[in-house]
Amino acid sequence: MQELIEIGLKKVLPGILLNQIAFYSLYKILKNNECIVDVAYTVSHFVAGSIYAYHFGLSSFENKFKLGLLALWTARLAGFLFYYRILRGFRDPRYEVIFVNYKKETFKRDVVVFGQYIFQGFIVLVTSSSLYFLFKNSLNPYQLAILGTSIFWIYLEGLSDHQLQSFKDQKNKAPDSICQDGLWKKSRHPNLFFDLMTWTTIAISSIKSKNDALALISPLVLYYVMARLTVPITEKLMKKKRGDKFTEYCSKTNKFLPI
């Protein structure tokens, strides 16, 4: 526990915050597109993982494999967000709601957004903490097999993102239409569920002793953020735009579980 705190505060947190500040600078360069914060979140996890990996050594094939899986998750999610959100100029209505009070006050808005980037950095420090245990421990074949299933979850998260994006790209669809294609038939947030499964898999596969159970803090905090912040804001906007149609969709569709 002491080593985790020491490495986290002295090495990982500075790296994360530098990455967050770099992405805030990109946010200003690209004309204040708040969606960049989601890309920063993803890349900051890779920064944290890289620091843990180099601290414990990358000489073994095992740790290279672990870092490769993290790179795969990062490249998939960050690449998707950057292409479909940033390059296409998409404006996320969730952030418009958050910053609506600062629409005409540029300086105050910039201060609040900068604070969001820094605060998110501290959240990443916690949600990436399972990576400390992942790179510290040498895993047995059973644990490596569990970790390997993360490829499956990464694929399904990508599939759900693709299905939603394909729905959004459809022309001539009704303004109040709701994506119910593929995985979205069974879950209102399948992409979040599979992302949570990825980090749960990382945490579980990293546990070799009772003390290592602290790795579970990562997916637990991630779930809390999803359940208490991301989902409520998203669904409030969906309800506002689609009314009773969205209420009906919620009544017959699970929030997370795609079953």
Task: Describe what you observe in this structure.
Helix 2 runs parallel beside helix 5 and helix 9 (190-205) runs antiparallel to helix 10 (217-242). With 259 residues, the protein is mainly α. It has helices at 2-29, 36-56, 61-87, 93-98, 106-127, 130-136, 141-148, 150-168, 190-205, 217-242, 244-251. The mean pLDDT is 91. The chain is built from eleven helices and no strands. The chain has one domain. Pfam families: DUF1295. Keywords: Membrane, Transmembrane, Transmembrane helix. InterPro entries: UstE-like. The chain crosses the membrane at residues 35-55, 67-84, 111-135, 213-231.
How is the secondary structure organized here?
Elements lengths: L1 H28 L6 H21 L4 H27 L5 H6 L7 H22 L2 H7 L4 H8 L1 H19 L21 H16 L11 H26 L1 H8 L8
Bin the strand percentage. Answer: under 5%
Q: Spans of 5+ residues with little confidence (pLDDT < 50)?
A: none
Helix content: over 70%
The biggest beta sheet reads:
none
Principal-axis shape:
globular
> What count of helical segments does DSSP give?
11
Give the beta-strand count. 0
Order of helices and strands: HHHHHHHHHHH
In angstroms, what separates the terminal alpha carbons?
37 Å
Based on CA atoms alone, the radius of gyration comes out at 19 Å
Tally of distinct domains: 1
Class of secondary structure makeup:
mainly alpha
Protein name: Steroid 5-alpha reductase C-terminal domain-containing protein
Keywords: Membrane, Transmembrane, Transmembrane helix
Organism: Paramecium sonneborni
